[in-house]
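User: Hey, my collaborator sent me this sequence without any context and asked if I could get a structure. I don't really work with proteins. Can you help?
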Amino acid sequence: MLFWSRIPRSLVLLPAMAVVCVALTAASADEDLASLTKRLQDEKPQFAQRQQALLAERYDLADRPDKEAVMSRGKPVQDGVRVKLPEGMSWEMLSDLSPNDIREKKLWPAGFLPLPHPHHEAGGMIFPKFLVEETKKQTGRDLTRFDLDFDLPDHFLPEFPPAIYLTTRLDLGDVSQGKLVTLGNYNDIFKDILNPKQLEGLRLLVTPFPQQQFNATDDRRSLLAHQGVACFDCHANGHTDAATHTVGDIRPNAYRHRIDTPSLRGLNIQRLFGSQRALKSVEDFTEFEQRGAYFDGIPADATRKGTNILERGSQVHFMAEFQELLDFPPAPKLDVFGMLDAVKASETEMRGQGVFFGKGRCAVCHMPPYYTDNLMHNLKAERFFKEVTVNGRTASSDGPIKTFPLRGIKDSPPYLHDGRLLTLDDTVEFFNLVLELKLSDREKKDLAAFMRAL
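Assistant: No problem. I've predicted the 3D structure and written it out in structure-token form, which is a compact way to encode the shape of the chain:
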């Protein structure tokens, strides 16, 4: 039986049905907050069940940590390939087929298709439970949405709270004190480490401002009138907590990408900002986020809900200056050129480095020492599958995506710009197919081991 015939009919939505769903979930002009809340809470279980069925269909979601690899503060890294194969296929068999054969026989693994937002037709910012609980505990702000919850299991997400490393004070190591940095504690943690300008930039990064779903209007998605969302609600401690959203600059809605929040670590060596927008400075991106992305690219909503116009010469530059201090985590096995020290690295990691710079062709885009070329690349993965709409998300061409740095990559699951790949082993299988590399099983394992050492 071919793979597509195994997808439950309830998971596949035609574009016309997606339009209907948008109409059902959007607030009407004469609907008050109480009616909106009741309607969306009534619909919530239906969409949650739909998304969980999709995840179970696509992935092995078991908690199966690697026996050795851990993140910076000790959370285990999940091991193994989690994307499920079409029935009767193996990864070796699949890699022997041409892209056209995979496309025509509908053998492209569903876990390699774009990952829909937890409720793609509704979209908007949504946060993992651990971030919601800690933010409420520290600040009293409740980032719970009454219409939906975050979808991926915690064991596939970054550790929380993340460590913080500063380029200016490498001697201090992790300066987070094991805490989530918020408006309530940022000054105590950083007053003796940062200068006043940097400290003010950090204050703005932990200050909440109105956002499409979290604001004081009657079509918000929080039960109580809300102060809004802070930059560090998604980029917890200047890293990431895997909070998700849908991009504001693509229409129609079915083609909008789910966003996997990228880490801000190593921002100082990056030259492009936004997975596809290619903004040229972090200052540009900071202004774009506040004026556009926070409100799904709808200026009328931004005006009505309370857009925050940041002053470029002081506020934006102050925020950028702090972000530029965020460093990658230590990588004790790398030398000053970003290559493995043969004395410190294992044989597996050394073989993996050979694959990375050789047969795997990874270094064509991910160049040391930070493992990025700061360019955009189009993988053209759409040559492997026919356009299909699943859970409101139409899988077609992704277009050019920026090369994200791989330094500290084990701390930043899930992977790819929309989080469709849950483990580093999944990324190896994905690129093995997309780049038609024909890596052996041992080469794949070695390559994943090398990336965990970066």
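In plain terms: The two ends are 41 Å apart (CA to CA). You can pass these tokens on to your collaborator as they are.
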